[in-house]
C-alpha cells in the first residue's frame, strides 16, 4: 500500500491528470481543504468576487475551450450562490464540474450553521449530483463525472464534499485506478438504436427537401468540420439554432441562417417546407420549433430528455454524421434553387447620425471594430441587435447565456473566455441593467489584467422590459434606472475608460481599446427610446 494522502489532495491530483488548468471559485470554511490542496497545485485558482461569477466564468471557459469547466464554492450560501450559473450551464448543456463543500458528516441533519440540502436544490439543474460519504466513493464519483464528459454527455455535474471527508486519508493508488466504464452509468440507452438509425438513414437517403437543424451539440461533439463536409458533399442546406450559431460558417452558400422565432426568411421557409428535418444536437426548443412545419423529424442527441422527434436517436452527433457519409449522393439542386429565392440576411438600418447614437448603430460599430475578437453577450434588448447584426466566423467566437438568459452573464463569462483564449481579446456587450447584476467582477478582470473591453450600452432603463410594458399596458413601471457614474466606477476598480455617444466614435474607441490590450470600459450612451424589432416586423434582403 502506498503512503496515504488526504482526499482533498486526491481530488486536485485527479483534475491535474485530466489537464485542468483553472478552477473558478470563492473560498469558504467548509471547502478550505480543497484550497489547501490547490496551494501547491499546477492548477490555478481564479478568485471571483461572487460564486455566481465563478459558475459563469467556468461555463464560458468550457464554451470557448471545448473542455469541461470547474467551479468551487463552500457549503450553504456559497453553494446556493452558484445556482444561477449552474442553471445557465444546464439549459445550454455546458459541461461543468461543480465542487461544493458541506458540513461535517456527523452534523448533517442537525440544522447546523449554513446547512442545507444542496443536492435537492441542484437536482433540477444538473445531470447528476453526488453526495460523497468516503474518499473511495468520492474518487469513483469524480472519475465517473469526468467519464461522462469524455463520452459527450454535456451539462453540469455537482459533487458535494463534506469537510470531514475532504480531510480523510486514503490510498493514493486509487487516484490512478481505472473505473468500470459501464454505458448504463453514462445514462446512454441503446434500446432500438440500430433500428432507429436504419430507419433514419433510409428517410435521409430518399428525402428531396431535407434540412439540417444544427444545435450546439455539434460544438461539444467537435463535429463542425464533419457537418460542413457532409452538407457540401450531399447538397443538404443547414440552419442553426440560436445557441449553435457559429457551428456552420455564416458565409457558406448552404447556410440559411438561424431558424425559429427570429430566424431568417430562408431558414424558416426551409423549415416549413422541408420533407425531412434532421436535428443534430439540438433540444428543438419552442423558439426553434416556431420555424419548423409538419415534416418528419429525425432527432439525434445524447440527452434523451431532449427528444421531440419522430425518430429519436441517442447518439453522439459526430458518430451519426459518420454513418450519413455512407449514403448515396442525392441530386437536390431543385430544392437548393428554390431556397435561393429567400433571404438569409436581416434588413437592419444602422446608418443614423442621431446623438445619442442609436443602439443598433453602436452595436454595429462595436462588431465591425471587434474583428476576430471573442464576443461575449449578455441578456437584454441589446442582445437582439447583436443577434441580427453579428456574422460569426468560427465556433466558440461568440457566446451568450442562451436558454436561461440571466442578466449579468457577460462580465464573469469574459474572465473564463479570456483565460480559454489568452491570445485573443474579448469584447463584452452588456446593458446597464445586466452590467450592475455582476459589476463586482470588474475586480476579477482587473486583478488578472485581462484584455477585456466592456462595451456598456447605457439606455438608462431595463430596455426590453420597458418595451414589453409599453406594448401590453401603454405605460412603464419600475424600469427606469438611476445609474451611477460608470466612468468613475471604472476608475475606482482601476480600469481605463471612456464615454461616447456619437456615430463613428464607437468604432474608433473600440479600436483604441483593443490596441491597448488592457481591461477597458467603454460606456456608450444610446437613444433610450429606440425599440427592438418584433419577429413579425422583421424585414430581409
CATH top level label of the largest domain? Alpha Beta
Low-confidence residue ranges: none
Number of strands: 20
State the end-to-end CA separation: 72 Å
Mind telling me the C-alpha Rg? 24 Å
Percentage of residues in strands = 15-25%
* Main sheet strand line-up: 3-2-4-5-7-6
Provide the CATH architecture of the largest domain.
Answer: 3-Layer(aba) Sandwich
Number of helices: 23
* Global mean pLDDT: 93
**Helix-and-strand structural type:** alpha/beta
**Judging from the principal axes of the Cα atoms, what is the shape?**
globular
Task: Give the CATH H-level superfamily of the largest domain.
Answer: Thiamin diphosphate (ThDP)-binding fold, Pyr/PP domains
Number of self-contained structural domains: 3
CATH topology (fold) name of the largest domain: Rossmann fold
Amino acid at each position: 500500500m502506498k503512503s496515504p494522502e488526504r482526499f482533498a489532495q486526491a481530488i486536485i491530483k485527479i483534475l491535474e491528470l485530466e489537464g485542468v488548468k483553472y478552477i473558478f471559485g470563492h473560498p469558504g470554511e467548509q471547502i478550505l481543504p480543497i484550497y489547501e490542496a490547490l496551494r501547491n497545485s499546477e492548477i490555478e485558482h481564479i478568485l471571483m468576487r461572487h460564486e455566481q461569477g465563478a459558475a459563469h466564468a467556468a461555463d464560458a471557459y468550457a464554451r470557448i475551450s471545448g473542455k469541461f469547466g470547474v467551479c468551487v464554492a463552500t457549503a450553504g450560501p456559497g453553494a446556493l450562490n452558484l445556482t444561477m450559473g449552474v442553471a445557465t450551464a444546464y439549459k445550454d448543456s455546458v459541461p461543468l464540474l461543480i465542487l461544493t463543500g458541506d458540513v461535517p458528516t456527523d452534523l448533517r441533519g442537525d440544522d447546523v450553521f449554513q446547512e442545507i440540502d444542496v443536492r435537492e436544490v441542484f437536482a433540477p439543474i444538473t445531470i447528476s449530483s453526488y453526495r460523497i460519504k468516503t474518499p473511495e466513493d468520492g474518487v469513483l464519483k469524480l472519475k465517473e463525472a469526468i467519464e461522462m464528459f469524455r463520452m459527450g454527455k454535456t451539462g453540469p455535474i455537482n459533487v458535494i464534499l463534506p469537510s470531514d471527508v475532504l480531510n480523510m486519508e486514503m490510498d493514493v493508488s486509487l487516484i490512478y485506478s481505472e473505473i468500470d466504464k459501464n454505458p448504463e452509468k453514462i445514462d446512454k440507452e441503446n434500446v432500438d438504436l440500430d433500428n432507429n438509425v436504419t430507419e433514419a438513414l433510409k428517410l435521409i437517403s430518399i428525402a428531396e427537401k431535407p434540412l439540417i437543424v444544427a444545435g450546439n451539440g455539434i460544438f461539444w461533439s467537435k463535429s463542425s468540420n464533419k457537418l460542413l463536409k457532409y452538407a457540401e458533399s450531399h447538397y443538404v442546406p443547414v440552419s442553426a439554432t440560436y445557441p449553435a450559431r457559429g457551428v456552420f460558417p455564416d458565409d457558406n452558400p448552404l447556410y440559411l441562417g438561424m431558424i425559429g422565432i427570429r430566424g431568417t426568411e430562408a431558414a424558416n421557409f426551409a423549415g416549413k417546407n422541408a420533407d425531412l428535418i434532421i436535428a443534430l444536437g439540438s433540444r428543438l426548443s419552442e423558439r426553434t420549433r416556431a420555424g419548423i412545419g409538419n415534416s418528419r423529424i429525425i432527432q439525434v442527441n445524447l440527452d434523451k430528455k431532449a427528444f421531440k422527434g419522430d425518430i429519436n436517436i441517442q447518439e453522439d452527433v459526430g458518430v451519426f454524421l459518420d454513418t450519413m457519409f455512407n449514403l448515396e449522393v442525392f441530386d437536390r439542386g431543385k430544392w437548393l434553387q428554390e431556397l435561393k429565392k429567400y433571404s438569409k440576411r436581416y434588413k437592419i438600418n444602422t446608418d443614423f447620425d442621431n446623438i445619442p447614437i442609436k443602439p443598433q448603430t453602436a452595436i454595429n460599430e462595436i462588431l465591425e471594430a471587434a474583428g476576430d475578437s471573442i464576443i461575449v453577450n449578455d441578456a437584454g434588448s441589446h442582445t437582439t441587435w447583436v443577434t441580427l447584426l453579428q456574422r460569426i466566423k468560427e465556433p466558440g467566437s461568440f457566446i451568450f447565456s442562451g436558454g436561461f438568459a440571466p442578466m449579468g452573464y457577460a462580465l464573469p463569462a469574459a474572465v473564463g473566455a479570456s483565460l480559454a483564449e489568452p491570445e485573443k481579446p474579448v469584447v463584452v456587450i452588456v446593458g446597464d441593467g445586466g452590467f450592475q447584476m455582476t459589476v463586482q467582477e470588474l475586480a476579477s478582470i482587473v486583478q488578472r489584467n485581462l484584455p477585456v473591453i466592456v462595451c456598456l450600452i447605457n439606455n438608462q432603463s431595463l430596455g426590453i422590459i420597458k418595451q414589453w410594458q409599453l406594448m401590453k399596458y401603454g405605460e412603464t413601471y419600475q424600469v427606469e434606472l438611476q445609474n451611477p457614474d460608470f466612468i468613475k466606477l471604472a476608475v475606482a476598480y482601476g480600469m481605463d475608460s471612456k464615454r461616447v455617444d456619437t456615430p463613428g466614435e464607437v468604432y474608433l474607441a473600440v479600436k483604441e481599446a483593443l490596441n491597448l490590450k488592457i481591461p477597458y470600459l467603454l460606456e456608450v450612451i444610446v437613444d433610450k427610446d429606440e425599440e427592438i424589432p418584433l419577429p413579425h416586423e422583421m424585414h430581409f434582403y
